[in-house]
Amino acid sequence: MKILVVVAVLVVFGVLRLRRASLLAWAGAWWVGLYVLLRFGFTAPIPSSVVTIYMGIVTLAILAYVTSSEERRGDVSGPLVRFMTERRYTPLLGATIVAIPALAAANVYVQMNVPLQPPLFSRTVHPASPSEITVHDAKINLDTAENTFLHLERSNAAEYRQHVENGRRVYYRNCVFCHGDNLSGNGMFVHGLDPIPTNFTDGSIAGLRDSFLLWRISKGGPGLPEEGGPWDTAMPAWEKILKEEEMWEAILFLYDFTGQKPRAREAGEHK
């Protein structure tokens, strides 16, 4: 996280506490503070669609709290009623009435006048993989590696199905939010990502070795070569979260669910 942003928000909260701010001021401060943290407090940018979802939850939580008792409702509504009825606030009230629609109109104008620009440069969707990667301190040769559990499809069908089921759980706990329920790259966060998540159902993974998928999953966006940029996606380096066998099981599930097979090793390649 960006420590300076976090410290700035905490300082504001500290000042409000020293000044014994009203409940209305605290409600506004919590809303603005959490928005600032979500929007500017993280090193890796959070997609705008995710920020909108979280702020919707925050808004409902704050409304539930301030309306949970007669005393709190009075603490919030009292200052608002005085602001709208007392003569001394008339100029400020008039300015507020004009400012709200003016700001909304200005925002619409700015959004409608964003110039359309071509991409800065083309990118390679499937960049060439390195010959070797290190996952959890173990070196994996991508030219010779195969899915650890793939051979079970013929030798032990029951155990193979168990690993597919494990991969299904890994996928729906970690990947579904971007890649979608049906693996077609249409998860709930897709609108905030560029490039959009991989569509596993369009046949593209049938042209890839399963070791290629292990490389992309384990290293994520941070491990993408320059030729794969520009990159503005949330794909993390899953090796920091998942075990190697969990990633292999997820790959097993991707091919099983979509009815595809990983690209076979061509004649002349290492065995």
TrEMBL record:
<feature type="domain" description="Cytochrome c">
    <location>
        <begin position="162"/>
        <end position="258"/>
    </location>
</feature>
<dbReference type="GO" id="GO:0020037">
    <property type="term" value="F:heme binding"/>
</dbReference>
<keyword id="KW-1133">Transmembrane helix</keyword>
<feature type="transmembrane region" description="Helical">
    <location>
        <begin position="89"/>
        <end position="110"/>
    </location>
</feature>
<dbReference type="InterPro" id="IPR009056">
    <property type="entry name" value="Cyt_c-like_dom"/>
</dbReference>
<keyword id="KW-0479">Metal-binding</keyword>
<dbReference type="Pfam" id="PF13442">
    <property type="entry name" value="Cytochrome_CBB3"/>
</dbReference>
<dbReference type="GO" id="GO:0046872">
    <property type="term" value="F:metal ion binding"/>
</dbReference>
<keyword id="KW-0812">Transmembrane</keyword>
<dbReference type="InterPro" id="IPR036909">
    <property type="entry name" value="Cyt_c-like_dom_sf"/>
</dbReference>
<keyword id="KW-0408">Iron</keyword>
<keyword id="KW-0472">Membrane</keyword>
<protein>
    <recommendedName>
        <fullName>Cytochrome c domain-containing protein</fullName>
    </recommendedName>
</protein>
<keyword id="KW-0349">Heme</keyword>
<dbReference type="GO" id="GO:0009055">
    <property type="term" value="F:electron transfer activity"/>
</dbReference>
<feature type="transmembrane region" description="Helical">
    <location>
        <begin position="45"/>
        <end position="68"/>
    </location>
</feature>
